[in-house]
Write a structure and sequence with these properties.
By secondary structure, the chain is mostly beta strands. It has 4 helices and 20 strands. Bound molecules: 2-acetamido-2-deoxy-beta-D-glucopyranose (NAG) (6 copies). Keywords: Disulfide bond, Glycoprotein, Signal.
Amino acid sequence: MSIMVIRKFTNYTLCLLAVSMEICVAYPQYQLLIPNAETVPHPCKPNYMWKGVGHQRNNGGGERNPFGRAFASAGKVFASRSIVPLVQIPTCANKTDQLEWVNCSYTDFKCDAANKPDTMNVTVRLPVTTVPANATTYMCMTFDLPSDKEYHLIAFEPVIDNANIMHHILLIGCQAVTHEVYKPYACGMTAGHNCSGILGAWSVGLSGLCYDEKAGFRIGQKGFKKAAIQVHWNNPELHSNYTDSSGIIMYYTETLRQYDAGVLVTGQTILNIPPQKESVAIEGGCPIECTAAIMNGPVYVTAVINHMHYLGIAQKTSVIDIGGYEKTLAYDKVYSYDSPVVHSLRDIFHK
Ligand SMILES: *[C@@H]1O[C@H](CO)[C@@H](O)[C@H](O)[C@H]1NC(C)=O
Ligand SMILES: *[C@@H]1O[C@H](CO)[C@@H](O)[C@H](O)[C@H]1NC(C)=O
Ligand SMILES: *[C@@H]1O[C@H](CO)[C@@H](O)[C@H](O)[C@H]1NC(C)=O
Ligand SMILES: *[C@@H]1O[C@H](CO)[C@@H](O)[C@H](O)[C@H]1NC(C)=O
Ligand SMILES: *[C@@H]1O[C@H](CO)[C@@H](O)[C@H](O)[C@H]1NC(C)=O
Ligand SMILES: *[C@@H]1O[C@H](CO)[C@@H](O)[C@H](O)[C@H]1NC(C)=O
């Protein structure tokens, strides 16, 4: 799935997007050969295991880590430290060792516009809410946006309360809401039929989003007056005593910017992964009939985020114009769920 932040302009048609994704799974039989290999903790995420013990990626596949290289060169036999002489033996790997396998660096939220004197902010958080002992839970809460005037929403920052279970947060504009505001409710992958305008998205590894300086999402009198946050909790070990009160800080201004921003989510969400394959490419997108139906004028693409879960290893998002010319917008040759890349673009697409 790709999340594109776009700003709207005047008149043209554009054919958009092929998303491809390759999927690869670890060979779990190797885990059986290595003592305690199924209990290697993920160094960045307390509630997760490092399943691909020999690999850079948490779920295996792709490049090997130092332990994986040693294991392979020893003929994929684990006998003792003398046969696998490197320090990165999973059973004794400590945090420092494992941090060499994965980049856990989280950057601070930097957004000049958020600190400007005419920028206001509002924080919306779930009240302290029990996290159910379910592997996956989507929890939503609707709330009122500032609506006394017209505003542009220009940045968005997460407030993470319980990092053990937090997977992603979406901020979604609503046309109308039927749920009581400020009251969390279990929801599906959408917050409700009247809430569908994505205004911001956060997932593990991002520090927040600072929108293109020429554009903002319209909220208030001529825009969204209500919104919902949707948090996705992962609780794979089914702990029953977690709570969470995560949320977001929104930055907005009444100094309206030149363009209105929007988000296009495109790609493929129904995946058939055949067995016994090392990788598989899956495509999805919004073809010309689709863009014609949803865009009534030219669009500038200002940022693209590729998004998959732990099985995804590479992803590309591109735009194909009416003449068949393909321009790559965002290519993560090595996709890592834990370090999403915001591809900021300066190019303008028009015809
Ligand atoms: C953890 O790793 C560091 C760096 O590799 C090493 O100096 C330290 O001795 C290790 N600790 C244990 C308990 O293995
Ligand atoms: C880890 O990520 C940070 C921030 O994105 C980057 O500056 C750094 O170079 C990365 N380190 C490695 C080893 O990839
Ligand atoms: C939000 O706005 C208040 C009042 O202007 C300010 O004191 C505070 O620092 C801002 N918070 C953030 C996170 O920028
Ligand atoms: C948790 O799982 C149970 C059993 O599958 C289900 O009945 C319940 O609705 C789930 N709770 C939430 C909040 O999703
Ligand atoms: C959407 O909003 C309309 C108008 O307020 C309301 O009648 C309808 O029930 C809402 N639909 C849902 C699914 O919330
Ligand atoms: C929460 O539950 C887990 C087991 O499900 C237990 O190990 C942990 O100590 C509990 N934490 C608290 C604060 O009760």
